[in-house]
Amino acid sequence: MNICMTGDVVEYSDVAQTAAAFVDEGVKPTIMLIRDKLGCNSLRDIAPLFLRWKAELEKENTSLDILLARGKSKQTLKNSEQGTVQEQLEMAGKRIDKLEQQLFTLQSKIVTVEKIRLETDALMRENRELAIGKAAAEATVASLREQLAKAEESAVSKG
Known about the structure:
Elements: E1 2-3, E2 9-10, H1 12-24, H2 31-38, H3 43-59, H4 64-158
Antiparallel strand pairs: 1-2
């Protein structure tokens, strides 16, 4: 068991996991990177554990270079996927803008249709009023014709 100058215990598993995480990111692990990641002040605390990790890789006939290449490939793929996601987000943003423009256009048309409906309602009311006025005028004309006819009859009979 190694103890960092900060007082934290640094174990082999901490160093091995940190080194593997760097490799997965396509970054070649170093004693300094691992020390910085784990927050230890002493390279002396990390060095023997890091060297043990590298020896374990060699025992397993695992090449650090191959692992790094895989890690870099994963990162490239991840970045590519993020690029694709970014492109999809941009396309979605453009689609949203277009839909918002269409919505604005439709809302404007709705306002126009509503104005036309109100004008149509007003014209229909006016038409009904005119029809009522026409009926009243026709009734008045009929009454006046009747009165005229009576007056003519009365004039003929007097005359």
